[in-house]
């Protein structure tokens, strides 16, 4: 059984988890850039900041893409349904708030006329061939 981490150790671990420029996000950017798509990063558009700070913004197309981690955003895959045993109430409440915030931000974006696509971290792990994901991205943008 693993040793329990002290609150200071847990805090240090959590502080190293990135919210921007993650490996899945960089891969989506690389796929799209190679196909000739140009975008702005992290919610910046001509009119200012967008709700939720989407990872990729295609302002001319009025489309945005979020690249979400399955655990943090409570995806319905195995990783997203993992429930930590330590401090379970805290994590459950935190993940519920994140999912509710995601839904609210998606609704705000759609109300402002934006189309939204969410790409999940597990989509990169289950396939060594990224052509299916690339086709989904291109289909969304065209």
Task: Tell me the layout of helices and strands.
Blueprint: H1 7-15, H2 23-34, E1 40-41, E2 44-45, E3 48-49, E4 56-58, E5 63-68, H3 88-111, E6 115-120, H4 122-125, H5 131-141
Parallel strand pairs: 5-6
Antiparallel strand pairs: 1-4, 2-3, 4-5
Function: May nick specific sequences that contain T:G mispairs resulting from m5C-deamination.
Pfam family, one: Vsr
InterPro entries: DNA_mismatch_endonuc_vsr, Restrct_endonuc-II-like
Count of distinct strands:
6
The best one-word shape is globular
In the CATH scheme, the class of the domain at 67-129 would be Alpha Beta
Determine the CATH superfamily of the domain at 67-129. VSR Endonuclease
- Say what the CATH topology of the domain at 67-129 is: Endonuclease, Chain A
Following the backbone from N to C, one meets helices and strands in this order, namely HHEEEEEHEHH
**Strand order in the largest sheet:** 1-4-5-6
For the biggest sheet, the summary is: 4 strands, mixed
Uncertain segments are: none
Measured on Cα atoms, how large is the radius of gyration? Answer: 17 Å
CATH architecture type of the domain at 67-129: 3-Layer(aba) Sandwich
Mean pLDDT: 85
Kindly name the structural category.
alpha+beta
What fraction of residues sit in β-strands? Answer: 5-15%
End-to-end gap: 50 Å
Enzyme class: hydrolase
Pfam family, one: Vsr
Region (Disordered): 1-20
Keywords: DNA damage, DNA repair, Endonuclease, Hydrolase, Nuclease
